[in-house]
Amino acid sequence: MGSEILVTVIIPVYNAAPYLKKCLASICQQTLKLIEIIAINDGSTDDSLSILHQLALQDQRIIIHNQSNGGVSHARNIGINEARGQYVTFVDADDWIEPSMLERLYSAIQETETEIAKCDVFVDGKNDGNRLNYPSTANELFDSQKCLHLLFTEFHEKHFGFACCKLYSKAFLDQFGIRFEEDMNFSEDVLFITKAITKSKTICYVPQQLYHYNVLPQQSLTRSYRKNEREKYDVIYERIRETLVAENIFTSIETSFNGYVFSGLVNLTLHMQSSPYKGLDLLKEIKEEIVSFVDDYPYVLEINPIKFSLKKKLYYQLLKKNAVSTLAFIIFLSMRKK
């Protein structure tokens, strides 16, 4: 039976009871029928496991793996290792996919003989509309260098950094031992994608929004600022750089990578709104964080900000002028207004 399975869908599940039925229904109703669905219950304390068992009775393609909590990377790796499909994809338990997604990505890989195919996402829960308009529906082939550039510069609906919304050759992942770093719980998707891109010659881009990313109301509360927040950024930058250097591609992609680092500084600073510090103490904390970051990554002041948003351009120009106090004050006012 294993040879008949075209795609394995891997779903890490942790306390996702309110969303599981919609997620699994969207997968079970795929137009591509020769699939298996591996749901890894990662130590859920709600009714997730019970719901999975109910759904598995309705569709024998659902395989349940139950384990104590080990994190999303560990769960995904288990799914990859146990997958019997020729290709694998990842779906988060609170998301859902269009009925044609698997068939569309599978067909794209077959037509182009690539190892990876990617579509765009639709961000459900955003206040503003995000339905993309495409000048053409034809598939595009991107070489590894262009893919890495897009990985470090394209965010939101076209974000290359999502491990989901992509289909990967199982043999390709096994050949190069591409797996998620289980000691990471921050930007692990970006590192996984970086490894995959550097080993693949081309990626097929399918210009359609076929994956629905669900922005949950509580997501803004799931990560509170901690004093060691910078350490997470340092780890991901170091590991991505090591991967690019090892594959002799860092020099050609360095400018885009530096822009990605700058975006991290923006996110890190804005995330400090959840810091326990208030008032002048918060301003001091923001200033120290910015100064420390720029000291460690001075090349963020040497990038070209042409494609930045207006706010990012202002942020960048203030950094260039060493106006850290002014910058901190503007950010503080912006956060208060928000």
Overall description:
With 338 residues, the chain is of the alpha/beta class. 46% of the residues lie in helices and 17% in strands. It has helices at 17-28, 48-58, 72-82, 101-112, 144-153, 170-175, 188-199, 229-246, 250-270, 279-296, 310-320, 324-337, and strands at 7-13, 35-42, 62-67, 87-90, 96-97, 116-124, 140-143, 166-169, 202-214. Strands 1, 2, 3, 4, 5, 6, 7, 8 and 9 form a nine-stranded mixed sheet that branches. Helix 1 packs parallel to helix 2 (48-58), helix 5 runs parallel beside helix 9 and helix 7 packs parallel to helix 8 (229-246). The radius of gyration is 21 Å and the shape is globular. 36% of the residues are buried. Residues 218-223 have low confidence and may be disordered.
